[in-house]
Protein 1
Amino acid sequence: MAPSGVDREAGGESTGTVGPWAAIVEALGAEEVEYVFGLPGSPTLLYNDLADRPEITPVLVRMETSSVFMAMAYARVSGKVGVLHASPGPGMANLVPGLLEAFYACSPILSLVSAADRNYEGMGVFQETPSMDLARPVSKWAVRLDIPERTTWTMERAFALARNGKPGPVFVEIPGDVAAASTSIPRYERPLVGLRPAADPALVERAVHVLAAAEAPVIVAGGGVALAHAETELSELARALPAAVLTTPSGRGSISEYDRHAFGQVGLYRTDSSAKALDDADTVLLVGTRMEEFQSGLWKLFPHEARVIQVDIDPFEIARNIKPETALVGDAGLVLAQLVAGVEAAGADSAKRVAHLDDLSAFKESFERAVELECAPQGEELKTKQILSAVNRIFDGETILVNENGGQDLWSYYCPYFKVGLHGCVAPAEQTVMGLGVAGAIGAKLGRPEATVVCVTGDSAFQMYAKEIPTAVQYDAPVLWIILNNAGLGWPKWIQRATGEKYIATDFDAQPDHVALARAYGAHAEAIAAPDEIAPALERARASLAEGLPCVLDCVIDTWDYPRGFVDFHRDVWGLELPGDRSSATDHAE
């Protein structure tokens, strides 16, 4: 441990005469950081100091964007701040696509970035980059460390802002000349955590009155529920009313999809059971969700006659697109707890809500029985839904699903075609940057090493980030990647067909051998070409993961079999439809 020195200005101790990177590493140790994802430039910048902290593992990624994806997924499943590093110039620039996704996902991550010396700024010094100009639009806070003595204050502020209030990515740039300085730097003290605002009691009372009067209420849980660790309060309110619970992709996992109150997702990701629950609702409680285009279907797939209550920690998000009757600004966990207490104290008659939930549950059970038959491993063409159904069956639903977002991988969003348990999903935000799932799965595995982590990905996203397979091998992070291989860009190609366009730049005429590639990287890999091959291959994959070996299953699928929700969304929201569409059956319920 570094020696103590003179008092800090506020009365605390100093680290003694050290450089900023040493002080930063001390801060990481105090925050109990486990991993720093990234690629080193000069090892004197961060990595030499990390060598003295064996409890912090530097994870060497193969490309800098991957470090953001891994930090995001790690943060989501661990509940901690994800930390990453990049070198100046192209290293920092490669972070931007990931930071864009992290910003919209409100992901609590900290980027530590080296920069060129200020002494030669504007003179053409090597890798001089306008880092701050690039980072500010996609960061909750972006700051340049100009004075070594401010290292501690900057790091304390960075961790506080990353996780308090509406979480988000924080960006800290350390120029080379500042990093080279040695001075007396105050010792790091962990900033206050758990700073959570509750809602105005008068507005809570008004919201309780609305909920108590409801006969068919629905709760829509967004990513804010998971970020607030409010899963217990969500479940308590669903039972107290009672009410159906729907989620957005970012909110998925805030309630187990095996729970009686869980009915699936909204918008593009609707199935029969979730559509019925929302369409029949007379009251909708939105918690921690922006309800942007894909979640609301351009605000067309929403019951506009329903009374709306909105809960969000950020006043900016209130009435951004859907105007609520009542709005509650505060932490999702605290506000949901306030609503539970209010509903229980009100003692309002719940008989009609119970009856409505019973009807929805009966409809859902009938729908799920039909889906089970639909997903049976039959026929000659391999279908994505058959693969996902088998994963749920063979892994008993005990997985963390890390999503991509393409035409075929969308099947993994549709419950009950794939069901996730509590805390069981990591999904992109509305930017849906390709590669988040492929690389992020490694961060999820490091964050929850006891869990089985499955990434469902199209062949395009996989090819972008297959280079991270050896990262999984190197850091003992056995992940299962399921490639839905249609040798092209399925979603754009579907749109080309629906609009009568030619298939231009959507087919991979030169396609790698994914199995050979994965094996060359050190993973177990197999190809699946027929329905009867699914279960045996998944059993071997499970054995491979148990032995600590990452696994890749390359599945050549029927590219024109699309989820019903996908087809309906394109028709009802965007006005696009294929003649004679071959999607799944429409009305499953008896």
Protein 2
Amino acid sequence: MAGWNADTAAGPLGSGSVTLVEGSSFCISAANGDISPDSPQGLFVEDTRILSRLSLIVNGESLEPLAANIKEPYRALFAGRVSGPDGRADSPLIVERLREVGSGILEQITVRNFSMSPTECVISIQIDADFADLFEVKEARVRRQWAESREILNDRLVILSAWRDIHKGVVVSAEAAGVVREGLTYRASIPPQGHWRTTMRVFPTPGSRGPISAFTAPRLGELSPQDLRRQEWVTKIPVINVGNPSIERTLRRSYDDLGALRIEDPEHPSRIVVAAGAPWFMALFGRDALWASLMALPVDPSLAFGTLQTLADRQGNVVDALSEEEPGKILHEVRLDVSSSLALGGKSAYYGSVDATPLFVALFGEICRWGFAKETIADLLPHVDRALEWIRDYGDKDGDGFVEYARLNERGLLNQGWKDSWDGINFADGTLAEPPIALCEVQGYVYSAYLARSWIAHDAGDLALAAHYRDLGAELKKRFNEQFWLPDRGYYAIALDRDKKPVDACASNMGQCLLFGIADQDKAALVTEQLMSPEMFSGWGVRTLASNMGAYNPASYHNGSVWPHDNAIIAAGLLRYGFVEQAQRISTALFEAAEYSGGRLPELFCGFSRNQFDQPVPYPTACSPQAWAATTPIQLIKGLMGYYADVGRGGVWLDPALPESYGALHIANAPMASGRITIDILGSTATVRGLPEGMAFRHGVRPWAADLVERNKMSKEP
């Protein structure tokens, strides 16, 4: 994925740190703008840290941080002050650093003198570049030692390094600077109530001394490439107004973050995917991209299509135990540059995901209903069939009809569903489940994939293939409800272990089964009761694991925390089975939680009860922004609107169930097929304007894939 571009919003990484991201470049710094090699900070380009130290020192003193204001995802203004020479608390010297991340960093440094006397200043910028890999920095295990050389070329400091046959370089330049081996030095006399200013540039260069392409600022009045890309995104997405200003603010923040996390492939400019999250996961993750683009369909349907195309290009072709690649399998993650030697599987692409492949087919089925050109859909269909072949030949390892996983090598992920931490799948007593493991929600994804392929085949006139996948789906649903259901507990097992023993923990995974319709109707009420119980529902959302389970820990990654995207999927499933009030409770709780983090939902937060803490407790290392957390508010509103399309059947469906506290909803410029529509909702009343020719607004529930398959069975048997 080298050479891909993205915009991504800034977010915190620990206390006081600031993250800016643009494309394959991102910068993590302290609150005063400095970068320290002793912290997980730096300027990263294509997963390599090209700046490990950036220290701004004025008169021998580091800056005391005052403020860091994120202006755009890629731009921030830092303010700090310099300690006074007489030891007084208030200093007359204030330093402003306006930093922009692009192909490197561009930083305008301003020192302001607020005293009534002139001030002499020595301003120095210390620079180091260790070219450490992203994973080395993240895990605090920098181990490669590069052979470094430094040269001063006119007004530039050039740092060149080599490790084995890999060469890296970075160039530092600034206006009227005294360049030394350690960095840049200035001597300035700042008049009373005056200021001094310079602009510094840092950008990577090949190891050779060939032409260097600097990261330059736009001319006065011009927009930067990052600003232009953001402006283009804004013109494409819906304009939303909500009576409740807090909910509107959260939705607008979601739009910003989703637009910021997009990645563009220069070889296929029309293909857009979404990166998993900032700062450490600015890469393509199959599961994350599929879920995020599915939930974002009402905002940008092209994101789902680009995701499918991009993953199809990288679909597995061979059996490779190291990367866990298998024919037809959809990848788990892609990494850049030398990171591939340190990442899972030791290659640029790692395939250790059990759920990305059925989700690929499920998303394909949904985009077929939202309206894309027939020829582009036809191009993807062979990849869909290869994915289904993987389910049959490799996903179902023992031929029992369920898809399970077991890693193929000791470096791979032990757990390969969305709860992929080492201890994420456990029994009620806390004992870890042993692989091969068949997750309950994965069977729901597979069921959805079978039904999607069935009705697509039926629409194409292939009645035999339609019947084949219809029967596979029916058999899977029957056996799932027989083997995963725990009648004495009133809920579904999270999984079956290697001995086909139900893993009996009460976990949120069963809630995802509701969305895909694999749960029997008579069991849904009991599942809902469990999900909304005090043990599962924290008041801010449904926990990943019930508080009365052996492995419960409210501050764990997957064993008691609250994940917004998980809750959005659960809420959609509750609505499918008619549990509207419960879906409204979850949705409202998440919107209220977002108020405590500036309208942005993080990747996850701790599972402490709302009775214990009157605001969500942050999870220390949560990504923010993160793709499926960013799309969670969109999915919540989409679900409560009952907003679905089926262009082939000429309809847009709305079945509003918005709580009264949300107020009126107005959406303009919403993409629909070849046009743009306007939607207004007040209470249970909805109106739609501007529908493309041949489409009609239909109040009610759009037929699910299961409904289409059942109708096809009744009308045309092969």
